[in-house]
Amino acid sequence: MSATLTFWHKEWLAAWRNYHVLILAVVFVIFGIEAPLMAKLMPDLMKLALGDQLSIKLPQPTSSDSWQQFYKNTSQIGIFLLALVFSGAVSQEVSGGTLVNLVTKGLPRYAVIIAKYLVAVVQWVVAIGGSFLITWGYTAYYFPDDKSPHVWLAIWPVLLFGLFFVAVVLLGSTLINSNYAGFLTAALVFAGLALLNYVKAVKRWNPIALVTDNLDLVRGTEKITHILPACGVAVVGALVLLGVTIWAFNRKRL
Amino acid sequence: MAILDLQRVTKRFGDKQVLKGLDLTVPTGSIFGFVGENGAGKTTTMKLILGLDTLDAGQITVAGQPVRYGRTVANQVVGYLPDVPAYYGYMTPTEYLTLCGRLTGIRQPDLANRITAMLKTVDLPQNKHRIHGFSRGMKQRLGIAQALLNRPQLLICDEPTSALDPNGRSDFLDLLASLRGEMTILFSTHILPDVERISDQVGILHDGVLQVQGDLNALKRQYARPKVQLEFASPEIAQQAVAVIGRPATQVATHVAVPFRGDYATMVEAILKALLAAHVVPLVVDRQETSLEDIFREVTA
After folding, report:
1. Distance between CA A213 and CA A94 in Å, rounded?
2. What are the tens digits of pLDDT across the range A34-72?
3. CB distance from B88 to chain A under 8 Å?
4. What is the pLDDT of residue A54?
5. pLDDT above 90 (res A161)
6. Do B104 and A18 touch (CB under 8 A)?
7. Containing domain of residue A150, as a range?
8. Chain A partners within 8 Å of B158 (Cβ)
C-alpha cells in the first residue's frame, strides 16, 4: 500500500512536469466553454455564412443543443485525447528501463499498474467533470429553459466509462512496447464496441452506451435504468482488464 | 560465509542456452569481479539475482534468503547499479533519491540526511537542476548514490565503467574501492584491468558456466606462465629473433614473448646468448607477469 502511494505521488509529478495536466486542462476548459457558445452562436454563424440563400427559419437554440455539442466533443475527441495522453503510461517506462531501479528496490509490479490506473482515472474524472461544470454554468446562463431536465444524471455514465476505457488503454500499453499501443488498443476496442452496438440483443449491455446515450438521458427520453446493464459490464470489465494487466505486467521482462 | 550463492542456475532464451548450470559463490566482504565476453550472460545472471527474470532451474540465495522472481525480500539488502541507469528526467536528484528511499522503507528525517550525505559523496549538487540535463558521468554518479542509499550489504554493478571516459572510470573505481570493508561488491565487466585494479575475487563466465572462480592472486599463481618480453627495432628483426631463439615464442609486431618456467635470469641469459650469436640485438628486455588477461585467454580458449 505504501509503495502504491509512493508511486502515485511519482505519477502526479510526472503528469505535472510533462505538462499532461496542463494540456488536459486547456483542452477540456475549451470544450466546456465551446459547447454552449457554439449552440448560442450557431444560428448567427449560419446566417452569416449563407446570407440570403437561407430560406428556412432556423429554430432558436436550446440547452439541449448545448449538451448535444458537449457530449459530441467528449465522446468524439475528449476520450481519445485522454487515451493518447495515457497511451505510453507503461510501455514508455518499460522501453526506457526506468522501472528497473525501482522494482529492484522492492516496488511491487502491481503497485505500478494500480497507481497508474488511479492517477489516470482521477485525471479523467477531473477533466470531464471540470468541463461538464463549465458547460453546465454557461448553459444555465445562455439557455434558461426546461429542455434538459436530467443534466446531472447524464454525466455519470461518461465518468463510469472512464474506468473501463482507462483499463483498456493500460492493457494495450502493457502488452505492446510502443507509445501508441494504448491509444490504438483503445481505438480498436471502441470501434469494436460501436460495431457490436448494431446487434440489438447486446445493446443494453454494451459499455459504449455510456457515452452515446447521454443526450437522451439529459432530455429525459431514456431512463438511467436502461443502461444499468452496460454500467455493470463496464465496471466488471474494468476490474477484469485491470487484473489481466497486472498478470501480464508480472510476466513482462523489464 | 557467502552473501550470494548461485547453484546450478540455468537460463534459456529461445534456442540459446545462456546459463548451463552456473555455480557462483561471492564471499561476504569481497570485491568480486565477474568477467566474461559480451553476451556471455553476465547481465542475465545479475537480473536473475535481482529477481528481474525467471530461473529455468537452480537456486539463488542472497544473505541466506532465496530469490524469487518479482517479489524478493532479498532486494532490501541489495543495491543495484545498471549498466545504463535510466531515470525520470523531469525529477531532480533529490526527488529521485527520495522516491528510491521511500521504496526501500527509509523514513524521514533519516532519508533527507542520507540524501544530502550521499549527494556529497558522489559530488552532485543538491539543487533544482533536473536529471535530463545531466552528463553520462553525472548519471553514473547518481546511479551509485541510489544504489548505496539503503546502505546495502551487497552492491551489484553491471558493467559500471564501460561507457565512462578514463578520468570518470578511474574516479568510479576509486569510489568502489573505498567501499571495501563496508559492503560486498559484485561487479561485472569485460574490462580486465578494472578487475585487476580493485577486485580480490574473480569469476570468469564462459559458455554458460563459471570456468574459474577464486582469489585473484591465487589464480595468478595457479595459472602462472611468466614470459620474457623482448622489443626489437622492426617487425623483421623480431621475426628473425623468433627463428634464432630456438624455443616457443610469439611475435606481435616488434614484440616477442617467450614463456618460461624456473629462473628468470637463467632464461634471459640463454635467450640473449642465442640472439647475440646471430647479431640480433633487442632494444628492451623485460619480465611479463601473469595477468588476468592471460588467465582469461587460457580458460576461454
Report:
1. 38
2. 999 988 888 888 777 777 666 667 778 899 999 999 999
3. yes
4. 61
5. yes
6. no
7. 2-250
8. none
